[in-house]
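anyone else get weird line breaks when pasting these?? whatever heres mine. first is seq + tokens for prot A
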Amino acid sequence: RLKKYINYKTFTYWFIRALFQAVAVWFVMIFCVSYKFIGNEGGRTLGDEELSLVTFTSLVMIQILTIILDSHTITIYNAYILIGTIIAFFLFNTCFSLLSSLSMYALMFHLYYQPAYWLSFILAVSVAMIPVFTVKAWNCFPRKTSLNSKTFEFFNDNEMELMDNPNSK
């Protein structure tokens, strides 16, 4: 049973997925800094500190969504922990933003009211997670196997027609 979850195929899938998600978040953040779709000072949408906080927030959310997708069963305790992680993350960022001795002073309050923060966050998480959701959904569809293809070999063509349309007799 352990070989099902710890093997080269699974590790390769995890590695490629993590690499894709990192590159996707990086490109979205570069796009948000480089292009002037929401104007700020100097033509940049987010500063370096804001950009790093948006990137970190996106990566935390991607990891939480990955845990949800890879969990085989979700219990009420898992749901509490995952929702609590999201709430605690934003709460800690807000509390650290209140301390004037840190370089993060009032940064979260500035970001909460800035549309570029939310747009960058949603865009980064979406771009990184949509392919993962697509692969998961694709794996839910039944595939033609040798067992399924041999099932109908026992029936001749007339019996198959009767099975398709019983009123054609």
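and prot B, same format (seq, then tokens)
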Amino acid sequence: MFDLRMNKLRWEMNVKNGVCGVQFDRRDIPMNKFVVTCLESQFHVFDARTQHPHKGFASVSQSISTGSTLWGAHHMPQNRDALMLAAGDGSLSLWKYQYPDQRKVKDQDGKELGVAGSVQQLAQRSLSSQPVNSFDWSPDKQGLFVCSALDQCLRVGFVTKLNKL
């Protein structure tokens, strides 16, 4: 994470896999959380509210069952805790982030340390035989999305029962 105003590195972490995508949960609020998608079916959700001086941001890591590259994570505009992962096997996976009971604790030195939440897979669907390379949620209609894959097809889809999250 690079601070452009101060022109210095604020934080960095090696996630041990190639990074394919990064996204903050919302643009209109102070930093809350962000997701990093990687090669080898892994993604990491970082809690960006509390940064420890030595340990950085708290995070939770998860792998998807398909074992393919995750090309991007896309938070739903109407619910920042729901996110869709676009995979290299042509599938989309819907996940929900669950906040912990306590978002920060004090370490032995009295410094604030973030506490990571958990993620839960809600649905997964294969849409193509080729990687999903682009995805976007509708800002107006909850659940409506558009995506494309390397099979040269554009798909419009809809996720139902999102009001029960």
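btw re prot B: The CA atoms of residues 53 and 73 lie 27 Å apart. The longest strand covers residues 42-52.
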